[in-house]
Write a structure and sequence with these properties.
By secondary structure, the protein is α+β, with helices and mostly antiparallel strands. It has helices spanning about 20-30, 35-40, 40-45, 100-115, 125-130, and strands at about 10, 50-60, 60-75, 80-90, 120. The chain has a 5-stranded mixed β-sheet.
Length: about 140
């Protein structure tokens, strides 16, 4: 398994690997079926979803995953914000604690910046994890 985050190389998920990535998300989230995972994250994980998905592999197996989808939020007085909505962040239990999820979230934030988006948002039950990357409660 990768020794450290510096060994990790996020890559854009190839279409033919989507089922494997969804299986990883199922395993990480403890969902009973693929349908539940897709129902939970349809805009990120369903077939044909317009999302950007990054993965980290080890020995050809996907061991970490994160996704984002662009959205526009109307704001009072200042028009609209174009944001990357990040979700589906997960790492196999046996490789947690090595910075892989952080590496993937950083790759998604960098991708959003390169494409001129105004920022990134996410919802999480682990705010302290994302606070280390600069996310704040809203």
């Amino acid at each position: 398994m990768p020794a450290a985050a510096s060994d990790a190389r996020p890559e854009i998920l190839a279409l033919e690997s989507q089922a494997a990535a969804n299986s990883l998300v199922e395993a990480c989230l403890g969902r009973a079926s693929r349908l539940q995972v897709i129902d939970t994250f349809p805009l990120l994980l369903a077939a044909g979803a317009r999302s950007t998905r990054f993965v980290i592999r080890h020995d050809e197996a996907i061991v970490a995953h994160a996704a984002s989808r662009d959205l526009t939020i109307a704001t009072v007085g200042s028009g609209a914000l174009r944001l990357a909505n990040i979700g589906g962040v997960c790492t196999l239990p046996q490789v947690r604690g090595r910075g892989l999820a952080s590496e993937l979230v950083s790759a998604l934030v960098d991708d959003a910046r390169r494409r001129g988006l105004d920022g990134a948002i996410l919802w999480s039950d682990r705010p302290s994890f994302y606070a280390r990357m600069g996310f704040v409660d809203a």
